[in-house]
Structure formats: structure tokens, C-alpha cells
UniProtKB/TrEMBL annotation:
Keyword ATP-binding: no
Molecular function per GO: DNA binding
InterPro entries: YbaB-like_sf, YbaB/EbfC
Coiled coil: none
Species whose genome carries this gene: Actinoallomurus bryophytorum
Keyword DNA-binding: yes
Source domain of life: Bacteria
Keywords from the UniProt entry: DNA-binding
Entry protein name: YbaB/EbfC DNA-binding family protein
Length: 117
């Protein structure tokens, strides 16, 4: 008898499903982060697009820091390990996200150039 789709896969990993949310500029910049990047997102109030690329980038960084802080707190709860052990795991995983942050910065720079035209 074939397995149903719901029972075919392994049980979900709560660490991979953990999500952190962060905001800046009174909620006009919103960021969502996850361990594997599958749920990562950046959202802007359309009025934020009037800001310079540097200002917008700073708001994104603030929101990212808040989102990562929330995610880290959830990981400590889920893992049940010491803060140091979870911090090491997170540090290892975040190394892979450096490229993603660079991509966000390139996107913001491109938006800034377009707005300046």
C-alpha cells in the first residue's frame, strides 16, 4: 500500500521551520528570516521608496537585526541547548547568508539608481 503524501516525508524539523520577523522605520520596512532561507522576505511601504539607497539599506539592516534576534530566541527555545551551542550553529548558518545580504544591497542600490534617474 503506497504512503500518502502527508506520511511520505519525514516529520518537519522545527529548527528549519523557525521564522524571525523584524521591522524598522515604524513598520514601513519588514523582514522575515529563516534558517534555510525558504521563508526569507523583505517588504517596504511604497513611501519608503522615496528614501535614498543608503537610508533604505540602513532600515533593512535594522529590520534584519531584529528578525535575526527573534529567530535566535526561537532557536534557543526549540533546540533546548545552551545559548553558546545555538550561537555556534547560527554563526555557521549565517555565514551562508552573507551572499543573500549582498544581493539585497545590490537590489537596493539598483532601486536608488533608478529613482535618481
Amino acid at each position: 500500500m503506497p504512503k500518502s503524501e502527508s506520511s511520505a516525508g519525514a516529520s518537519p524539523n522545527p529548527i528549519l521551520e523557525a521564522i524571525g520577523h523584524g521591522e524598522a522605520a515604524d513598520g514601513k520596512v519588514r523582514v522575515t528570516v529563516s534558517i534555510n532561507g525558504a521563508n526569507d522576505a523583505v517588504g517596504f511601504d511604497p513611501r519608503m521608496m522615496r528614501q535614498s539607497a543608503d537610508v533604505l539599506a540602513e532600515y533593512v539592516c535594522q529590520a534584519l537585526r531584529a528578525a535575526h534576534e527573534e529567530l535566535f530566541g526561537k532557536l534557543v527555545e526549540i533546540d533546548g541547548a545552551s545559548v553558546e551551542a545555538v550561537r555556534k550553529k547560527v554563526d555557521d548558518l549565517q555565514a551562508s547568508y552573507t551572499d543573500r545580504m549582498d544581493e539585497y544591497q545590490r537590489t537596493l542600490d539598483d532601486i536608488g539608481r533608478r529613482l535618481a534617474e
